[in-house]
Amino acid sequence: MTDIVEATEQDDGPYIFRRWAFWPALVGAVSITAGLAFGYDQGVIGGALTFMQDEFGFGSFVEGLITSWVTVGALFGALAGGALADRFSRKRALILAAYLFIIGAIVQAVAPTVLILIVGRFVIGFGVGVASVAAPMFVAESAAPDIRGRLVSGFQLAITIGILAAQFADYLLSESGTWRLMVGLAAIPGLLLLIVMTPARHSPRWLVSVGRLDDARDALSKYRGPKVDADAQIAEIEENLADEPDSNWGDLLVGGARRALVIAVGLALFQQITGINAIIYYSNEILADAGFNDASSQAGASLVAVGCVNVAATFIALAFVDRLGRRPLLIAGMAGMLLGLVGMSITFLFEAQPDNINTIVGSLSVIWMVVYVASFAFSLGPVVWTIISEVFPNHIRAKGMSLATAVNWGAAFVLTLLFPNLIDWIGNSATFAILAVFTVIAMGWTWLNVPETKGKSLEEIAQMFERDDLEARSSAGES
Ligand code: BGC
Fold it and tell me: Which atom of ligand 1 has the smallest separation from the CA of 384?
């Protein structure tokens, strides 16, 4: 207690110098290290594949497996992640993910055969899936409401930095062709996550759910600062948990949880079917079609147009997600994505023209790609993970997040598999037009369905959904 009082007195300096700011910073570091691993593992394969192929000589089917197996692993990891986070705690689920990152990276780096390489990809993917559920959950449950959006968006920032780091590693190591090092470097974010998780306290809400109230009080005053009214917060969490002590999957279809499920799954799906990963994975091919003729000009253009822009624009979300709110960012970002997709669709109508026109097509397509990626980076990228982590009531959060995250990975898998075939069948222009249609649907749906959650405690959000559900049911009963 004296410690807390002393801390209050000393804590009037700038935010990062306050003594207790170590703990919120640690929560931010969990977000960042988990996101780095997520992004690096997703991004590294693009540049490594050619060299793996040179060594093992596989065909396009195996190539597809090696590329997509991280996504498949992530789908299963996400499904298991919720149960692990409930049973063993969010913290231990993240420690497991960290070990999986390290083991998966080492297995890939030393793989003597293609089969073992694929096993390594799956292991690391499983870790990514577990982390993509447990990290935002841990952060949302530990952070104070007024900075929660920023801290969960830090997860997305780190994903984008991870993707950029992977592109950069691929670029630097492409001369020597050392693909084993490219994939092996993925152990570093895993190691960092392990280091960060070791001193971390469990999330306060998990501690309350297993009855460890003293520990919950301690975790709350560390993560939320000395001025927090820990007892009131614990009472609120207990009340929220007492309504529904044991959860099963069916509970997701009842009351306020059903509304949360619709919102989380809808956003998870729209984040993927509006095309981000197709554009990230196949940016080099898109640029080749647009007239960037050699591999190094493609790599350079996509490093800037995708990698750097993706990182830079995420800062916009960090700055505004807790001030302007989630909805304005989502709607404005999707409008920008739509503009980029329509622009690409129209630009590609003019592809395969004589050389002078091709140069114009090339430059325009890079501009549209930048517009699209930047707009995603401050909207559907960070805001979706934020909302998924805050809409579910306490007792069902882990299951709900698991399901929504698995849908996200499933959609990413299908889209990345379909995208090159779609381009072959109907061409670039029509493919981007389809993505544009999905974006229009996503915008309309978000406008109608996604409420503002900025600044509210997770318990207040749960109550808001419960009220909405009651109102909806009583007005349905009246009519
Ligand atoms: C998505 C990933 C995507 C990344 C791009 C994330 O929010 O979930 O699928 O690759 O953003 O920055």
Answer: 7
Give the pair of three-digit tokens for residue 381. Answer: 């990228």
Which pLDDT tens digit goes with each residue over 365-375? 889 999 999 99
408 C-alpha to center of ligand 1: Å? 10
CA of 277 to the centre of ligand 1 (A): 7
Q: Which residue has the tokens 């309309």?
A: 444
- Total domains in the chain come to 1
Residue 63: CB atoms within 10 A of its CB come to 15
Pocket test of ligand 1: the residue of 70, 159, 310 to mutate, having most ligand atoms within 8 Å of its CB, is: 159
Residue 12 has pLDDT above 60, yes or no: no
Distance CA 152, CA 401 (A): 14
Residue 102 in any domain: the answer is yes
Is residue 39 one of the residues assigned to a domain? yes
- Residue 12 maps to a domain: no
Q: Which residues contact 341 (CB under 8 A, 6 or more apart)?
A: 274, 275, 368, 372, 432, 433, 435, 436, 439
113 sits in the region (left: phi over 0; alpha: psi -120 to 50; else beta) called beta
Which structural domain, as residue segments, surrounds residue 265?
Answer: 21-200+243-472
pLDDT of residue 3: 38
Q: Band the pLDDT of 10: cuts 50, 70, 90.
A: very low
The pLDDT assigned to 2 comes to: 35
DSSP states of 190-245: HHHHHHHHTTPPPPHHHHHHTT-HHHHHHHHHHHH-TTS-HHHHHHHHHHHHHHS-
The atom of ligand 1 lying closest to the CA of 314 is 12
Q: How far apart are CA 331 and CA 68, in angstroms?
A: 30
Find, among 409, 414, 416, 415, the residue nearest to 385 by Cα. Answer: 409
Report which protein residue has its CA nearest ligand 1's atom 1.
Answer: 381
In the chain, % of residues over pLDDT 90: 44
Nearest CA to ligand 1 atom 12: 160
| Protein residue with least CA distance to atom 9, ligand 1 | 277
Rounded CA-CA distance 367/18 in Å is: 43
**Torsion over CA: 45, 46, 51, 56 (sign):** positive
Lining ligand 1 with CB less than 6 A are 42, 156, 159-160, 163, 271, 276-277, 280, 310, 381, 408, 412
* CATH code of the domain containing 374: 1.20.1250.20
> What global pTM score does this model have?
0.84
Query: Where do runs of H (alpha helix) occur along 88-199?
Result: 90-110, 114-142, 145-173, 179-184, 187-197
Question: Does 218 map to a domain?
Answer: no
Structure-model confidence comparison of residues 270 and 219, the more confident one: 270
State how far the Cα of 45 lies from the Cα of 64, in Å rounded to an integer.
11
> What does the radius of gyration of the chain's CA atoms come to, in whole angstroms?
23
Residue closest to 400 by CA, chosen among 229, 268, 257: 257
